[in-house]
Amino acid sequence: MKNIIVYLISTTLLASCKAQQFDIPSMSGRYVGVDRAKNTLSTSIRLELNKDSTCLFERSMDLSKNICQGKWGIVNNCVINITCNNNPILSDIEKALQCGDYIEDSLQIKILDKDKLKIGNVILKRK
Q1: What domain count does the chain have?
Q2: Is residue 2 part of a domain?
Q3: CB atoms < 10 A from the CB of 103, how many?
Q4: Which of 50, 88, 91 is nearest to 71 (CA)?
Q5: Alpha-carbon span 70 to 84, nearest angstrom
Q6: DSSP labels for 50-80?
Q7: What is the mean pLDDT of the chain?
Q8: Residue 3, in any domain of the structure
Q9: pTM attached to this predicted model
């Protein structure tokens, strides 16, 4: 019985994901969100997805900022995969020291609909 319920939930989630077709032009744009759950300081997230498959992801909290510049694509019509190609330590040590941190490797962002994305506990809304 438990396996049947898990199968039905998985199938429903997969079907809802396939019901809407997302592509790069339809998902391009600016998305913003705020995470207030971690502590009293809020963390803001800004994501810019460009039509040429380039992107900028910024996560700011107080005086620190995490940045990822790279390429993005849509995987299985459900997830935006961002591959970061910036490493400020290799390109500019002063910039790296001022920025606080950088994101290397990749990010996975769930597509909720064409105007909402989710990364961790944060819902990003199109602006």
Answers
A1: 1
A2: no
A3: 18
A4: 50
A5: 4
A6: -TTSEEEEEEEETTEEEEEEEEEEEETTTEE
A7: 79
A8: no
A9: 0.72
